[in-house]
Design a protein that fits this description.
Layout: H1 17-20, H2 32-47, H3 55-83, H4 85-92, H5 102-123, H6 125-158, H7 170-182, H8 194-228, H9 243-263, H10 266-303, H11 317-333, H12 336-366
Length: 384
């Protein structure tokens, strides 16, 4: 989702593993964004509160593509760590790159969740459940580890300068929110009683830790924009990452409220249903405000010469979380306005995914996306 700054690495021996796999050297953790952006197209399409002929079948095809992408990126990243360990360590110690390790967790979770909602039409409920349990468990464990490890590295190793906050800082802390939003799919599959209640409350705990961490970082990000000006052209699409915790948290409270009646006592279940609306509506309002602001900044960047980069995948998953959030509000309020909002946002999501996907394939075939990354070009101030 971002162009990585080039890092200086040791020269490999002529016949080393690195020389045999030169195309994997710059395959960073940001490539998991292609999986996230593809899986959310399938999951959000299945969540739409309207019936569109052929949509379910199309979502099934996209889910299969997301699963294949996950396997491909996991293999490429394994090859990267095996053949280019110097570059992999440099990525982990680079404050501009390390936050993207949160994408691994979200890619696993997104594919697991879409397998339960869409893929079960192909593989059956039992197989879909098994896949989701594995991917959800791995994704949640990685997400929680990254939510601690990356902020720790930022404090003790990265030490970013004041005024350099970036929306990508949200990636490690938003991963547990994805677990909170997709955990409700597994609640009904657990034994009734303690197991279901424990899973429900664990999801609320992850919702809380992700939300509070996001609230700590958002003021830093907005202060950076106000005091330092627009982001570099290539990084401007990362402004859409702010939509991720907003849409995903709205989705989470709606999904958790849906399964609460069967997992927890009546007083709490009804309160959680009310909380889904009382929390979700204001947050969705702020999400639309930020969407307008980020969209305006993207238009400005395009006028300034912004060209395609992997940051364009930032237009996909965050918007998809707003689709599922709006769909949840439509389900809980019964308002047609939220139904139309979900549909409009889904059209935006599919359009962004199609453009990013085509441009990515073009960049792969040309080799441009496998070459050493270039430093982002700053935005020149307009005098008029």
């Amino acid at each position: 989702m971002a162009i990585f700054p080039q890092t200086r690495a040791r020269t490999s021996a002529p016949y080393s593993a690195a020389a045999r796999l030169p195309s994997l050297r710059y395959i960073g953790p940001n490539w998991y964004a292609t999986v996230m952006g593809t899986a959310i197209v399938a999951g959000a399409g299945a969540a739409l509160p309207v019936h569109v002929p052929g949509l379910r079948a199309a979502c099934t095809v996209v889910w299969a593509l997301a699963a294949l992408l996950l396997a491909a990126v996991l293999a490429a990243r394994a090859g990267h760590w095996s053949a280019h360990r110097d570059q992999a360590r440099a990525h982990l110690l680079d404050p501009a790159v390390a936050p993207f390790y949160g994408c691994l967790s979200m890619a696993l979770l997104a594919v697991g969740g879409s397998t339960m909602t869409v893929g079960r039409d192909v593989v059956g409920h039992r197989a879909a459940l098994a896949v989701d349990v594995v991917l959800y468990s791995a994704g949640t464990a990685i997400g929680l580890a990254v939510a601690v490890a990356i902020p720790y590295l930022m404090v003790v190793r990265h030490r970013p300068a004041p005024g350099t906050a970036s929306p990508v800082w949200l990636l490690p802390v938003v991963a547990p929110m994805v677990s909170a939003a997709l955990g409700p799919l597994l609640v009904p599959e657990l034994p009734a009683g303690q197991w279901q209640e424990a899973m429900l409350l664990a999801c609320y705990a992850m919702f809380g830790l992700s939300l509070l961490a996001t609230l700590m970082m958002l003021p830093l990000i907005f202060a950076r924009l106000v005091h330092q000006g627009p982001l570099p052209l290539a990084l401007t699409p990362t402004l859409f990452l702010v939509l991720g915790p907003l849409g995903q948290s709205t989705t989470a409270v709606g999904q958790l409220a849906d399964v609460a009646p069967g997992a927890i006592g009546a007083p709490y279940a009804s309160a959680l249903g009310a909380f889904a609306v009382l929390y979700g509506v204001p947050v969705m309002g702020f999400a639309l405000l930020w969407l307008a602001l980020a969209g305006s900044m993207v238009v400005r960047a395009v006028r300034g010469g912004m060209t395609f980069s992997m940051t364009w995948w930032g237009f996909t998953f965050p918007v998809g979380t707003c689709v599922t959030g709006a769909a949840g509000l439509a389900r809980h309020t019964g308002l047609t306005a939220f139904t139309w909002l979900a549909v409009v946002l889904y059209v935006l999501l599919v359009s962004a995914w199609a453009v990013a996907g085509v441009r990515t394939l073009r960049g792969l075939f040309s080799g441009a996306l496998l070459a050493a990354p270039q430093a982002p070009r700053p935005v020149t101030a307009r005098t008029t």
